[in-house]
Amino acid sequence: MSTASHFILYVADQARSTAFYARALGIEPRLQVPGMTEFALPGGGVLGLMPVAGIRTLLGAALPDPDLARGIPRAELYLLSPEPSACHARALAAGARELSPMLARDWGHVAAYSLDPDGHVLAFASVN
């Protein structure tokens, strides 16, 4: 049994989001099947990408339609890296929209923020 923590983002277009995260993270997915893409993250976490239609099928009427929140940030993926500036630049080159450049933050990290194609916040940081 795997003990890794999984963080799953609901995405409008699985192929588009897979291509974005492969470029932004600089890694290939460890799993790529219809309905789910997974990336192994540093530290043992797993980033999953699930099409909105898949979560609708899985949970049905028990969940409000995720499409109603399109364009409203609903999640943040905060990744620590030894080279956060290079990671942030790679995400921007992959099509992310910058929200905040690399700056020293009051919690002791330097971090930069952007939005992925589905409006999820993506941050790359390191300990200051």
Average pLDDT value? 91
Structural class label: alpha/beta
Strand order of the largest sheet: 1-4-3-2
Considering the protein shown, what is the CATH homologous superfamily?
Answer: 2,3-Dihydroxybiphenyl 1,2-Dioxygenase, domain 1
Unreliable runs, pLDDT <50, ≥5 residues? none
Our count of domains comes out at 1
How much of the sequence is in beta strands? Answer: 35-45%
Residues in helices, as a percent range: 10-25%
Determine the N-to-C terminus distance.
35 Å
What's the main sheet like?
4 strands, mixed
| Count of helical regions | 3
Radius of gyration: 15 Å
What CATH architecture would you give? Roll
From the spread of the alpha carbons, the general shape counts as: globular
Provide the CATH top-level class: Alpha Beta
Compressed to H and E, one letter per element, the order equals EHEEEHEHEEE
**Any idea of the CATH topology?**
2,3-Dihydroxybiphenyl 1,2-Dioxygenase, domain 1
- Total beta-strand segments: 8
Describe this entry's structure for a reader.
This protein is an alpha/beta fold. The protein has one domain: Roll (2,3-Dihydroxybiphenyl 1,2-Dioxygenase, domain 1). The protein has 3 helices and 8 strands, in the order βαβββαβαβββ. The strands form 2 sheets. It has a 4-stranded mixed beta sheet with strand order 1-4-3-2. A 4-stranded mixed beta sheet has the order 5-8-7-6, covered by helices on one side. The model has no long low-confidence stretch (mean pLDDT about 90).
